[in-house]
Specification:
By secondary structure, the protein is of the alpha/beta class. The protein is built from 5 helices and 5 strands; from the N terminus they run αβαβαβαββα. The chain has a 5-stranded mixed beta sheet with strand order 2-1-3-4-5, with helices on both faces.
Length: 135
């Protein structure tokens, strides 16, 4: 067909709209948030000098087979901790502060809905397992 000498050359051709396929895949990927970590709980502190308390709480959660992490800075800012949880796709943040330590409770914050609930520190593992099973 395209041979200038008029010879017939047998051939087979296939065409796929690769760019269209990629644009559809990119649109679907943009719609759903991809979690970059398997961590379920971020332990955060509202005030300074609570590194040891965050470490104790993380240890308790790890003993209860709950995937948790915390910021390793000595005095991280609360906003930075919450932003890290949202960016990483961590569904819940457990917040401790001086008042929560006095009252023997922790604050559990849902990063998607931003709802906060209080839970007793003594049975935090059971409460978090109940909340995580609902996901």
């Amino acid at each position: 067909m395209f041979d200038p000498k008029g010879k017939k050359v047998p051939c087979v051709g296939v065409s796929i709209g690769v760019e269209r396929v990629f644009s559809i895949m990119e649109a679907k990927a943009a719609q759903e948030k991809v979690r970059t970590t398997e961590i379920d709980i971020l332990v955060a502190s509202a005030q300074k000098n609570l590194l040891e308390e965050r470490m104790k709480l993380c240890s308790e959660l790890w003993d209860g087979n709950i995937k948790a992490e915390m910021s390793y800075k000595k005095n991280p800012k609360m906003l930075n901790q919450l932003q890290h949880a949202e960016d990483s796709g961590i569904p819940f943040v457990v917040i401790i502060g001086e008042q929560e330590l006095k009252d023997g409770v922790v604050k559990i914050r849902n990063t998607l809905t931003r709802e906060e609930t209080m839970a007793p520190r003594a049975n935090i593992n059971e409460e978090l397992k109940r909340i995580l099973s609902a996901l």
